[in-house]
Records
---
Amino acid sequence: MSAEATTTFHSNADAATTAAAVQRVLAENKAKVLHESPDGMQIDFQTRKTMLNWELLGRAITTPAESGSDVQLTLNVHHNRPPALLDGKKNKKAVEKLAAQIQAAIG
């Protein structure tokens, strides 16, 4: 069973504004940026470890859309951490929370 969780959402803001919001939310959450495309539209990141959760590896991809932009978020268990039975459920909850934070930051 895969622990990867993915969600997508649409923003009425242009891609540059949306990508900036993604970067801001990741910084506020103290995520470590592992790689970022030159235009900032794709960001690979690692969440921070908490008392209840290991680090997660994530990717945020912002793409221009007809009336704004689309964001695809993916979170998965860090490859250096042991898998657990409820990882998929926890990752889904975490990716939905991150999406909501980004949507709130966009306004």
---
Amino acid sequence: MIRLEIANIETYLKRVYGDDAKLLAAGDIGSLDAQGMKGFGYGKPLLIRFMAGGEIREAVLSIMKGDKYGHQFYWDRAAILMFQHETSARMERHVRPMGLGYVDDDNALIPVDRPREFFIVNEKLEGHDYFLDLERIRLGDFRDSDLELARDYARWLARVHSRKLDDAPLYHRRIRNLIGSSECILGMIDEAYPHPYPAFEDARFIALEKRLVDWRWKLRGYAHRLSAVHGDFHPWNVLVTEQGEFSVLDRSRGEWGEPGGDLATMAINYLLWSLYGHDRLAGPFERLYRVYFGEYLERTGDAEVLEVLAPFFVFRALVIASPQWYPDHPASVRQGLFNLMVNVLEDDVFDWENIDKYMERGA
């Protein structure tokens, strides 16, 4: 529980305004003088009166409380406060920001000074991108170790997805984001394709979106499935060492979500590479797909995942069929992915063992 202690507020003021800054009073807005000095909880605006540079000043210190409306995590709330700090002063008659900061694990208030961009520093991992292995396989060099690696992916996902969370609003949020986010389905439709696009006309996009509304309402009944996820588990986010060990990069879209998203994200890439040379899942990529999918289902016992997979395949098909993201695909590859994207929504349960049926010409 965050506590806004008097000493920490004064330390913050000294860091921002100099060592001569002094907190004079803190309390509820409208009752500052009656409230006096004390410790305060969080989520409620706090009026502070302080001396800085020989001048008595007043300010309101606010910390957002988490809620189920897209503010579950501190980084959600940070984004809103950063927006307010950056833009409020540019609006006529709007209150002016005086500072931006964060509360650390010791309840200290740490100022963020004139932020422009944020960065992250990660460790350097050894290995090559997994997509290079898939390209090697496409060119004819298929190894037994490739099958074992696909099994390892499935085992790893099974372990990750074994962590569950009881939070229905968060599951609903993840499904909303899947369909409506700027970086997911509707964002891909709007920005990753030209309009009109002869290979998939706007009328088909409209029909696709309407069908996805049905799936959104269906998936509301699966909130019990909320699990730890990676969120972007594809061949460009996996590093493989020469010893066959793998590491993952770029966890995305939150810690919790629908495990079927991870399962579908890697699976569709086996189909993508197979479409270079076939009109269906075939050859070594079919073997990889079946080993990966079968191992996952055996390890998790999660047959229910097949009831929720379709919209996740749509999202990933939109990504890997995009002429912006993948400009060099032959028309036949793109068409196969479009067929999958349309047809998969018509089955209530994904028929993973007969995926080729989704490759037929869509509506």
---
Amino acid sequence: MTPKNDDIFSLREIAIERKAARENLRDNIAETKDRVKPKNLMREAKDNALNKAQDAGMTAVETVKSNPGITASVIAAAALVTLRKPLTRLIAGRSASQTPDPKE
């Protein structure tokens, strides 16, 4: 090709690339406008929160499966702390009913 034809070919290539870039930019702008709508932002936030909660749950399940003894100890300790007062009342009630009545 002659240098003039090379220049014309280069200009056509540049024009084609510019057209493609404009189309991509137009598509990106439209997609961005759609993405920043409040409805879509809320849906995306909800989906992200749900995914994080599921990941945390799966991590917890895997931790429990890999350490059953520690998990049982923690659950037992939590149950004792939670039921401390009811158990104390129950034990105190039984011991009071088992002691002999001095009037008898």
---
Amino acid sequence: MKIGIVLRELHRSENDLAHELLQVADRHKVDHEIFHVARDLAEWSQRHVREIAEIAEAYGEQLDPEAEGESGLVGRALERSSELVGRAKAPGLLLLRDLREIYMKAGGVSVDWEMLGQAAQGIKHRDLLQLTKRCHPDTLRQMRWANGKLKESSTQVLVS
């Protein structure tokens, strides 16, 4: 069985998505909605990382249950860059790029959840299936949020 490989990749992808959401939140601190929602969505992925790590042991994988966070130095640098972005001439373009990146990463995570869910059904592993049923809807919501913000912002940013 290659379930461990999928769990390892899903763990990495969720970690990457959480990190990206935190970076976007910090880059766009001046936009309170982006800041707060992106941080909330990052917490979902961090929870997924913990849950994946818990179940992965049963499939031969030792994964870190702690999601990668921001270091103090990186956090301060991101805070400074957020202030600069807030005053930059093209923060809208950066926001569109960031939202696109979130959407693409969440899409990849969603595909991983789909593969895991299909395998779980095929081998009748209820623990895996329950994990996918708990976590995959969060990932779909992360995608919908990024897509909605892209739709909301694109015209204004690209036409002005």
